[in-house]
Every structure is written in structure tokens, then in C-alpha cells.
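Run log, item B.
One chain of 824 residues. Sequence copied directly from the ordering sheet:
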Amino acid sequence: MNATTKCSRLYSIGIALTLFFSYASAEAGVGVWSDIANPGGKLLLRVAIDTAASPEVIYAGVEQRGVYSTADGGNTWTALPTTGLVSFSGYNQIYVDPATHTVYLAASLGLFRFNGTSWQLAVANDQRSGSQVAVVGSVIYLLSTDGFYKYDATVDAKFVPFPDNTVFIGNAPTTFAVDTTSAAAPIFYVIATDHNIYSYQTGGTTTQWNVFTTTASFGGGMPNAIAVDPAGGNGPIYVCTSTGLFNNLTKNNNGVWVNPSTFACTHLGIGKNSSVFADRNSVPGAIFQFTSAQAALASSTKVGDATNYSSAFNDFVVDPISSTIYLSNNLSVFSNTSPSQTSTWVDMSNPSGSKPTLPLSPISAMVFDPRPLTATPPARAAIIAQSQADTKIRTSADGGGTWNIFSDAGAPTTIPKKFVVDPNATSGKGVYMITGVDQYVYFWSGVTWTTDPSFTNAHVLDITIDTKGTQSTLYASTQSDNAIYQSVRTASGSCVNTPCWKSTGGTTTHPNPALAFDVATGVIYAGDSVQGVIKSADGGATWLPFDTGLAGFHDTTTKLAIDVSATPHTLYALNSAGLQAISTVGVNTAWQNVNPSGTVTDFFIDQATTPTNTIYAVNKSGNLYWKQGGNWSLFAPPLLAATNHTFIMAVSPDSIPTILLSTNDANSSYRLQAYTFGGVPSISAVAPNTGPISGGTAVKITGSGFTPDTQVTIGGVRLPIITFMNSGEVDVTTEAVASAGAADVVVNNYRGNANTSSGGFTFTAVTPPTAATVATYPKTNSPPGSPKQSGCNSTNHQMPSNSVAIIFMLFCAWCVRRKKTNLQ
């Protein structure tokens, strides 16, 4: 490899590392999606109990959301602040110190401790990954991927090996249990990947881990979980293995291991009176209880399975005081206060059954009602959604926190395929629904759902609304007679004309379930199975082709929408070829493929953002993209759902908006996800606060309320390079400005919720480069005060002041050339 190639590759590696760490920093602490179909938390991976609190507090770690707690059996869940929590995934354990009630979160990005208001690394500047933690006295013990560690604040500056990790080199520990019968000399038991169990007693005679037992004690079975009975005195210890559940009554490496159960297990818990709870691999999702305290435990009782808690569990813990089991799965946290064969499991996200939730099934249709239903700020747009499980329509006015049945009065029993809300209608009225089977249009009058008998056989495909003026005009495309119908409504939803729906006179010949209305121009656009897209400028009386160059199968066009912030307006169409766009001016303007990536299943144009509207598109791979006048960008916070799902979406019209995404296919485990943008941010410091007008200054802005969508302008120039670090910091790079002087720093979140630091940054003038300084000496003279020179100094010399740099560069070039020559 020659020197030039080596330098080039090193430069490339440097760029790659810079990009990697920039990305990692930008993704840390990003906003999170919430599964709001069952408020109280979903995708619950870890659960813990603060048994010393009164009443007991349950903590649940929720992937992509943070940690939640409840002290009333699940009636209310409180989200712990996420400030300082840089990890929203890779949760391995939640642990509560029974002495101090401190909550710890062992995660792949470190061990975090909650101080009551924010999260911080349990040991400052030590981001060692943690898979399991325990606190004995004031000492923190941490199981990591490369060994076992401790931190004693009185003697340790960071986590140190405990007592040493020689035995775990190439033999990673996987889980551990601690016997605190003697608080001054606790005994630790660790299962490692070589399937042996190691032990160490603090203050003992040895300074290293000893083999406590091998797989031979379990008939060759591999140990999966280990627990020590806290009420057992000098025993027993329990181990779940691939060959069954074993116990050692004497807790001695020479003691006898008893096999009370021959079925394999992976989870263990110990309750009151030394009762033992374990799963059974042959019965997925089932939990069994062994009630014979400290004995052979030959008999067991199944206390629950997937039919009790709707899904297999991710984790369960047992309250050692009451034997209450708390179980977490992808749906909720479930509890069983008196485990038995006939006992009841309670869904802690809905313990009393009084909070209607969206049942576990795909969401077929949803919409935001732009008229706030709550008078107390911040007013929230209501969500209207329907679940395919029971076909009931529900509404939420608090972003999915609680759900109420909309109304069953007059409601059809068939599944709706679309909701449309008339923003001009009186609050509580003006909601329209198209049913999916018979394709009727139902109207919510505020009291009951009704349908116009003269319009019931029209087989409606789509509805769009002209909202100009005090009255709204609805347009509906139909399949039965290939016509466009019109209905003019008052604010109360009453029909102005008789009949309520009447044909516009024109026919679309080959209608598709896609309509769009341009409020500014009054033009209606409709999908056509043969011609692609057609338009009408006279209310549907006549229709003209709107370019036949639309790619894909025209009969697959499922949605049309117009970006009215573009000049001229832009029409978007979604069909089998993806997302396409065309200018609304001119008949022969070409359609452009604007598909971001993958198979797009839905898109949405947010008409409330400035200066241009924001467009979202979601694909089957679970990636959400957005753009505002430029190119597509991947929305930073990842979705909760897995890939290969059909998503539908909506964006609320609130000043602090919410994105709703739903998987409406039968394979989806998640139903309705929400992402709420940040409110008004604040600026506390700008550092550095000066830089040249030529730009390029790296600036750190600290404050609060920052989100991944945060935008920054300095000196009136919007900055394209913004790195979101966390809710308290964004890093930017200044752009060039025209003149020097103090400039305002403006930080704004979505839809212009802004905060300004007046004169927060000062641009300084750039001094123009000057000619190289030249010293000219007469031929016969030397510089003043110098001895007389001769030879090469006897002529005039012009030595530039930057000559050292030039000489060094020439020297480097000579070295590279010489190296290349030698290699040849």
C-alpha cells in the first residue's frame, strides 16, 4: 500500500467514524412512540416491585418509552421523567433498592439510577453495560457481559472487578442470585456460559470465584435461572435447568441436589412461605406453583397460562411478602394476588374494567377531530378509531390515555373503512363514516348514527369536503352508478337540499376509492381505474383527464391529497407503483415518482406547518419518512411495530401535534401508536457565542424541550446541520451571513413553537488575507544589527512569513514521492 493510498483510507475511516458517532449521538435520547391502544403501557419487558414502600409500587420498563410506575394496582400509571435516560431499548432489568427505594435500570447502554427527577449513570463516567444489578448495603453489584463488578462509593472511583474476572474470560456470566442471610458477608451465585455455577462469599477465605456445581448435578442439564429463598436460613437454593427444576436444601456445594420437577424451566420466583414459582417450557406461557416449603416440591399447580393474560410473558416477578405475581408481556402488566388453579389474573392497565380499551385487533379506520373536545388547555384533538374485534367506535380526548365508546345508537354492525370529520360542524357533530361492506355513509348527529335512505345503495367509495364558507359541501364518489354526489350541510349537519344527496350530473366512468378537493381552486380530483386521475372544475358536472402518465395499476389508487403550500399546488397519489406527485397546473404535466423507500402503505400532508407543509409517508418495513419542501428524511424515533405490516396514519391539528400510526393487518401485534412532538423549547446557553460571518462554527445550544424535529435559525438563516443530542441539547453549525454583529438565536419545534435568545450569537468580520510579509535587503548590506553576510545572502532575499508551512508541505510531498518510488 503506498503512502497516498494509506492517507486516503485513513481519511475515509475518519469520516466513517465521525458519521457513526454523529449518528449515535443524534439518536441517543430521541422522542418515543407510545402504544396507546391500551393505556398503561405496552411491550413491557421488565417489571419490579418496591416491597418496602407503602403501598407497594410496581415499576414497568417499556421498550421505546421509559419506565412507568403505579401505586394503586394499575388504576393510574405515571411515567418517570426520561431526562438523562439515553437508552430507550435494551432494557435488561429494573431493580429497586429495598433500603432506599432507589430505582435502577440495567440496560445495554449502562446502569442508570433515578434520583427522583431525572436519570443518571449509577457510577459517574462509567457507562458499563448492565444485565443484572443488586444492592447490598451501600455497595452496587453489577453483572455485565464481560464479568462481575462492584462499586463501593467509599473506595471505588468506578466499577471494579469483583473479586476478579479471570474465570469469566471467554466464559460470560449470564445471571446471578445473592444470599443476604448475612448482610456483612453476602454469597453470590453466578451462572456462566460454560453452564457451571460459580460462587463467592464476601469476606471469605478465597479471593476468586469457585465452582459451586456443574451440569453433572442436573443430569447434564443447562442452568437457566437461579434463586435463593430469603426465608430459608442456610438454604435452599433453586435452579431452573433444561432438564428440570432442582433445589439444594443446604446451599452447599457438597449438598444433595433434588429434582422435584422434570420439566424444563427458564424463569424462577420465590414467594411467601418459601413457595416457588416457575414456568414450564413444554407449556408456553404457563406458570406453576410448588407449595411444599423447602421440601422435594413433588407436586405443582398451574396458576396461569396464555389464556389468562392473552399472550406469553416476557418476565414475571413474585412478591416475597404476599406471593403476588406480576407478569409483563407485549400487552400489559398482569397481577395475581392469590395464585391458585382458579385465581383471577387482573390486567393492570384496566384493573376495574371501567376504562374501555381498544381490543387486540387491527384498527380499520381512524381520524382526528380537529375541534378540541377539552376546554382546559392544552386542548387536544379527539381521536376517533374503530377496532375490528368488536366493531365498536371509540374516542379519546387525551391522546389515547382513556377511551370511551362513541355511541352504539344507530351504529352499523359492519366495519367502517373511513371516517371523515367536517371542521365547520358544531362540536360533537359532523362525523361521517363509510362502512366497508355495504359502503353506506353514516352521519353522527350528536345523538345517533343515521344514513340517508335514498343514498344507501350507492356503494360509496370516498368522501371529500369543501369547507369554504359557513356551510360545507360534501362530495362522494360511488361505484353503483359511477357518479359523484353532492351534499350541502349546515353547522349542525342538517341537509340544505332535498334530497340530501344529489348527483352532480357528471360521471367518472371508472371510479376509484380516492377523492381530493382543492379548497383554493375549487377543483375536485378523483381516481379513475382507466384514466388514472380525472378532475372537475365545475362541481362534478364535467370531468377531464388529468394526465394519463400515472404509473402503476390505476385501479389500485387508494388515496389522493393536495399540498396547497406548494406553488403551484401539488397533487399526490398512492397506488401500486408507490407515491407519485404532479403539479395541478396544466394538463400534461408529468407525474413524478416521489416514493421515499419500500412499499408505502399510507401518507399524510400536514397542512398546518410553515413555511411549507410537512409530508409523511410510512412503508411496510415500519419506516416513517417526512419532508418539508426538500428531500425525504427518516423520522428519527423508530416505530414500535415489526416489519411487514400495512400502516394507516393521521396527524392531529393541535399546536403540539401527535402522529398516529396503526397497523391494520391481521399479523400486527400493535394497534395504535402515537408520537407527540415537543412544546415550546427554551434556551439557557449558547456556546461558543461568537464566530465568523463565513460560518462553520460548531455551536452547542443547551436548554429544555428539544425534540428530534427541533429547528434552529441564527441570524435569520435556518441551519441545515442540526444534531439532536437529548431534550436539553442540540448541536448546530453556523451558516454564512452577510454582515457582522449580534444575531438572534431562534429554536423552534414543530409548527413554530419557538423560543428566542436575542443577540445570543455574535458574528465577527473576517479579516481579509494580506500579502506575505517581505523583507528586502540591499545587495551590499545585511539587516540592521547583523554581521556582514556573504555567499547566498549577498543577494536580495524575499522570505514569505508562511514559508515554514510551505517548506513543510513540500517536504511531505517529497516524502510521499520517495516512498512511492521505493515501493516501485
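Observations after the first pass:
- The chain has a mean pLDDT of 76.
- Helices lie at 3-27, 306-309, 803-823.
Flagged for discussion on Thursday.
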